[in-house]
Write a structure and sequence with these properties.
142 residues, 82% helix
Length: 142
C-alpha cells in the first residue's frame, strides 16, 4: 500500500511539473484525431498546404512549452536535443494513430517532417537565446 501511495505522489508531482506540456499535447492529440470534416466546414482559409504550417506551429509551440517549463534543468545542448525527441516521437505516434483510429484522416510523412521542423526550430531558437537568458538570470542573482 505504501508503494502505491508513493507512486501516486510522484505521479502528482510529475503532472504538476509538466502541466502545460501535458495540456499542449492533449490539445494536439484532440486536433489530430478530430474528424477532418470539422475543419473543412470551418473553411476559414483556402491556403494550399495550410495544414503543414499548422503542424509546424503546433510542434514549435509544444517544444517551446517544454523548454520554458524546464529551462533551469538544461545544462548542455545534448539534454535539450534528447528532450526534443519527445515531441518528435509523439508526432509520429499521432500520425500512426490517425491512420489507425480515424476514418477521415491518414498518416502523412510530410506532417511528421513539419512536426520535426517545428520542434527543431524551437530548439534552435532556444540555443541562440539561452546565453542571453543565462546572463540575465545571473545578473538578477547578484
Amino acid at each position: 500500500m505504501s508503494f502505491y501511495c508513493l507512486f501516486l505522489h510522484q505521479t502528482d508531482k510529475m503532472i504538476k511539473k509538466n502541466k502545460f506540456s501535458i495540456l499542449t499535447s492533449l490539445v494536439i492529440l484532440y486536433l489530430s484525431l478530430a474528424n477532418a470534416r470539422t475543419f473543412e466546414s470551418a473553411g476559414l482559409f483556402d491556403i494550399p498546404y495550410l495544414d503543414k504550417f499548422v503542424h509546424f506551429g503546433l510542434y514549435f509551440l509544444f517544444m517551446s512549452v517544454i523548454i520554458l517549463e524546464h529551462r533551469h534543468l538544461f545544462s548542455n545542448t545534448r539534454q535539450i536535443i534528447i528532450v526534443a525527441l519527445i515531441p518528435v516521437f509523439f508526432g509520429a505516434l499521432v500520425e500512426m494513430a490517425q491512420s489507425g483510429f480515424t476514418d477521415t484522416r491518414k498518416a502523412d510523412i510530410l506532417d511528421i517532417m513539419f512536426n520535426t521542423a517545428g520542434t527543431a526550430s524551437a530548439v534552435c531558437i532556444w540555443l541562440f537565446y539561452e546565453p542571453y537568458y543565462k546572463r540575465q538570470s545571473d545578473k538578477n542573482i547578484v
